[in-house]
Amino acid sequence: SWSSLPKKAQLAILTLSRLSEPLTQTSLQSYMFYQLKSFHPPSGPPPTDRTVAQQAGILAAAFTGAQMLTAVLWGRLADSERFGRKKVILVGLLGSAIGSLGFGFSSSFAMAVFWRAVGGMLNGNMGVMRTMISEIVREKKFQSRAFLLLPMTFNIGVIVGPLLGGLLADPVGSYPGLFVENYTGWMGRWPYALPNVVNAGFLGCSALGVVFGLEETLEGLRGKKDWGLKISGWVLRRLFRRGKRGPGYTALSMEEGVGEEDIELSGGTSAAADEHKPTRGPAARRKKLPFRRIWTPNVLFTLLAHGLLAMH
Predict the structure, then answer these.
(1) Across all residues in the chain, what is the average pLDDT?
(2) CA angle (232, 223, 260) in 5-degree steps
(3) How confident is the model at residue 44 (pLDDT cuts 50, 70, 90)?
(4) What sequence ranges are listed for the domain Major facilitator superfamily (MFS) profile (predicted)?
């Protein structure tokens, strides 16, 4: 059942991180036409509907095009032990927040395209999130439900995003009773900034959840010191007064717990202990396959099917 899914807290953080992204991408659909109409000199006429239609297509392509060019790079960084999955997701969330704020406060079409491209260039989270779910939920019987979480969350964001954008766009014109007459604040100067500020707030909250709650799943970085998790653990212990009542139990590594006197663990000889000691250096690292090895027929057909579906 759904309640049987393991590591629900980790899945919840990934789900919330995934929810904040479609909110940002789809909320602008409800006001993009009017925002593009506003991009003109004070003394000049607004762009024609045909021009706005072309500009809307360029704006949509700027984000996905930049994302396509950098997605493989973010995937490689997520596989490296110097970066890892968690940092890539964090950069993606913060990059989307920066791109959203820049787009909301844009005063020209060129600025809007630039910030949309920045948001796409810094966001490679989709593939990394799927990879993390496969590493968090290792049992096959749970994976079918766990992998459904991301598309379900995306569809919720697609529904809520345009509603949120339509309600918050141009607040001075939509809700004149809430503002003084001749209001000249930032909501009047940038009437389409408020939805993006709210979306950036959602992305920032998701980033905080990743910093203080998400565990690294990359094989070479598991168990490494994570200051975000340490701080959140200390705060939770303070809030709920769960101080340590004793030394507790800690797993010993083979080199710490096995010696010549450890008869039961070493089998009576120190040679056995030496045999089980973890090797260090380049030989102990997992061998990485070359990038060309991913292009199998199954992968190519899957990419083709997914591309055709996205194009429709």
Answers:
(1) 85
(2) 135
(3) confident
(4) 10-312
CA dist 22 and 76 (Å) reads 24
Give the phi and the psi of residue 8 in degrees, each rounded to 5: -65, -35
Give the pLDDT score at 260: 47
Nearest to 134 by CA among 149, 122, 155: 149
Rounded Cα gap, residues 227 and 213, in angstroms: 11
Per the listing, tokens 């100067």 go with 189
Closest CA to 136 of 15, 254, 241: 15
Residue 233 structure tokens: 């653990």
Interhelix angle 49-79/84-104, nearest 10 degrees: 160
What average pLDDT does this structure show over 2-19?
Answer: 90
pLDDT for 168 beyond 60 = yes
Q: Which amino acid is at 66?
A: A
The sign of the CA dihedral 221, 223, 226, 229 is positive
Model pTM above 0.90: no
In this predicted structure, what is the pLDDT of residue 54? Answer: 95
The one-letter code for the residue type at 305 is A
Q: Which CATH number fits domain 2-176+186-234: 1.25.40.10, 1.20.1250.20, 2.120.10.30, 3.40.50.1100?
A: 1.20.1250.20
pLDDT digits (tens, 9 = 90+) for 288-308: 778 888 899 999 999 999 999
How many C-beta atoms lie closer than 10 Å to residue 257's C-beta? Answer: 12
**How far apart (Å, rounded) are the C-alpha atoms in residues 222 and 80?**
13
Exposed / middle / buried, residue 55 (Cβ in 10 Å: 0-12, 13-18, 19+): buried
Domain ranges across the chain: 2-176+186-234
CA angle 287, 293, 294 (to 5 degrees): 110
Q: Which long-range contacts (CB under 8 A, 24 or more apart) does 228-236 make?
A: none
**Within 10 Å of residue 302's Cβ, how many Cβ atoms?**
11
Helix (H) or strand (E) holding 202: helix 194-213
